[in-house]
Amino acid sequence: VDDVVSITGFKKNYIYDLVKREKIPFYKVNHSVRFDRKEIDLWMRSGRPDLIRLGVDKLNEIIERESDQTQ
C-alpha cells in the first residue's frame, strides 16, 4: 500500500477506500491486499473519468474539511 500511496499521492486510508469500492486494480492474497505496480501506473495514466472524478471528490472533501475548521 505504501508504494501505491507514493505513486498516486493519495493517503493510505483513501487507497483502502478505493479498494473497498473496487475503484483501483488490486488482488487479494491470503486476506492481504496486493497491487501490481504496472497496473497502478496504467490506471493512473489512463486518464479515466473515474480517476479524475475520484481526484475531484477527494479535493472537495479536503476543501470541506478545511472550511469546517476555519468556522
Jot down its keywords:
71 residues, globular, 2 strands, mainly alpha, two-stranded antiparallel ribbon
Model description:
There is one protein chain. The chain contains 4 helices and 2 strands, in the order H-H-E-E-H-H. With 71 residues, it is mainly α.
Question: What is the gist of this entry?
Answer:
The chain has 71 residues and is mostly helical.
Query: What is the makeup of the main sheet?
Result: 2 strands, antiparallel
Shape: globular
| Mean pLDDT over the full residue set | 84
Structural class category: mainly alpha
> Which band does the percent of strand residues land in?
5-15%
How do the helices and strands follow one another from N- to C-terminus? HHEEHH
List the helices and strands and how they pair.
Blueprint: H1 2-8, H2 12-20, E1 27-29, E2 32-34, H3 37-45, H4 49-70
Antiparallel strand pairs: 1-2
